[in-house]
């Protein structure tokens, strides 16, 4: 019998966490599932641990591949998936026992293309619940989804694939895969296309997913050498999406505000986190200010934009004035959290 749900787990340097992750999946109250563990050329024992689980439980499949990044690993899982629905779980996270039974039941009850849930930020200090960013309990149809896409960055509902369950036929028929040349913040372009293609979507206000605040994860590294290239590629992918479906004019302000609120500060903070002399850091900041996506967003976003916090307005002002030395001082004193 075809699995109800395929759960794709990319693995890279998650030896310390993968057993908790896989055990949480084997304890799912929904038994008819397949668990696809994708060893993305991990240099640790993640692949060996995955093979052990595969030998113990027929629902577990293992894919070993050369390292290609998170998007490449997820795509390998998508190609192998056979379930009616597809979910994603990162190898250093874990889930509650009823996650996939309850989300699958919600999907079947309302014939949904995508189901979203809330999640918990899990750390040594405890768990912090983050509710779903779409209106919980409300069935969203095509027009509603298009309306939500106009403010996708403000509400952040296109962040993260691991809190969603996707109908596999939706992804297959629309040939939806992850951009493999985007190695950071890769979820958003995928979700833009997936939600646009979806006809029926619902969010459930339950924190089934446990997102581990892992200081060793890719998103937590202080300096990411690939960030500039990935965010440029991500921006181009988003812009291409909006232009393809003739939505750019109505969505431009949402995207530009997001750039000034999150991604430009991320780029600048990343430049200042690099262990290089100030002269080279400022040269990097100058390069960032010359990026077309940055110039456009800085130019078109008002300092009076009420969606920007005070610190974000200060950064925007310094970008408008083109003052690398002050931007360096600001971020070396005040590195913002990821976003």
From TrEMBL:
Entry keyword Transferase: yes
Enzyme class: transferase
UniProt key word Transferase: yes
Xref: Pfam families: Glycos_transf_2 (PF00535)
CDD domains, per the entry: Glyco_tranf_GTA_type
Domain spans labelled Glycosyltransferase 2-like: 6-171
Entry EC number(s): 2.4.-.-
GO MF annotation terms: glycosyltransferase activity
Keywords: Glycosyltransferase, Transferase
Cited InterPro entries: Glyco_trans_2-like (IPR001173), Nucleotide-diphossugar_trans (IPR029044)
UniProt similarity note: Belongs to the glycosyltransferase 2 family.
PANTHER family, sorted: GLYCOSYLTRANSFERASE, GLYCOSYLTRANSFERASE EPSH-RELATED
Protein name per UniProt: Glycosyltransferase
Source species: Bacillus glycinifermentans
Lineage: Bacteria, Bacillati, Bacillota, Bacilli, Bacillales
